[in-house]
């Protein structure tokens, strides 16, 4: 075969390929140089969802490949925790309402009587503590004089000193209990303040 025939064959082949390409892929509009037209399917393999509250997924509202419109429910969370929280809040509300009702009702006569009895008991205990203090003070002074004369041991004297100090502390505590009981009685008699209810 001659070189001339080969060149003619190659030229014909090039023209045929060019014609095929032009026919198969027609030219784009020259004004839209950036447009790219392709067809195909984009497949999402992973999607991250976020919820306003934490929880376990109870239901998925669509299957793989289905289209989802904006605003459409995608999933439903298990709401058992939220139902328990609502129930607990309702219980707390009922308790608060009961406390308010009790505060609005004020002190019952029985509560005032009980507070008076507590005050009387505290006063009796304070009187008893005062008597024990006087007795232990007298014992302490007597043994103090005896220890300097050698009539009692130093250990016996220290025992009486400790008893005296304990009796003095007991009298102070009894006096404080009287004040607390008196204040409690005053509160019961006064009833509830409006600030406690609000």
From TrEMBL:
Checking Pfam families in the record gives: HH_YBHG
Q: Which UniProt keywords are listed?
A: Coiled coil
The domain of life for this entry's organism is Bacteria
Please give the GO cellular component terms listed in this UniProt entry: cell envelope
Task: List, alphabetically, the InterPro entries matched.
Answer: HH_YbhG-like, UPF0194_transport
Please give the Gene3D superfamilies that the UniProt record associates with this protein.
2.40.50.100, Helix hairpin bin
Q: Where is the YbhG-like alpha-helical hairpin domain?
A: 77-197
Chief subcellular location: other
Instruction: Give the location in the cell.
Output: Cell envelope
Coiled coil regions in record = 86-177
What protein name does the entry list? Answer: HlyD family secretion protein
Q: Which organism is it from?
A: Desulfofustis glycolicus DSM 9705
The opening ranks of the lineage are: Bacteria, Pseudomonadati, Thermodesulfobacteriota, Desulfobulbia, Desulfobulbales
């Amino acid at each position: 075969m001659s070189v001339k025939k080969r060149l003619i064959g190659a030229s014909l082949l090039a023209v045929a390929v060019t014609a095929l390409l032009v026919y198969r892929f027609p030219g784009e509009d020259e004004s839209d140089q950036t447009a790219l037209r392709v067809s195909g399917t984009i497949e999402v393999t992973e999607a991250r969802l976020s919820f306003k509250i934490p929880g376990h997924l109870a239901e998925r509202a669509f299957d793989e490949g289905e289209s989802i419109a904006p605003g459409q429910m995608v999933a439903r969370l298990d709401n058992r925790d939220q139902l328990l929280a609502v129930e607990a809040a309702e219980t707390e509300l009922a308790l608060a309402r009961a406390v308010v009702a009790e505060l609005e009702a004020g002190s019952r006569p029985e509560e005032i009587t009980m507070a008076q009895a507590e005050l009387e008991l505290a006063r009796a205990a304070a009187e008893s503590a005062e008597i024990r203090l006087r007795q232990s003070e007298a014992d302490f002074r007597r043994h103090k004089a005896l220890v300097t004369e050698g009539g009692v041991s130093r250990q016996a004297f220290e025992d009486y000193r400790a008893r005296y100090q304990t009796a003095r502390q007991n009298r102070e505590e009894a006096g404080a209990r009287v004040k607390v009981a008196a204040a409690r009685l005053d509160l019961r008699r006064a009833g509830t303040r409006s600030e406690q209810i609000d």
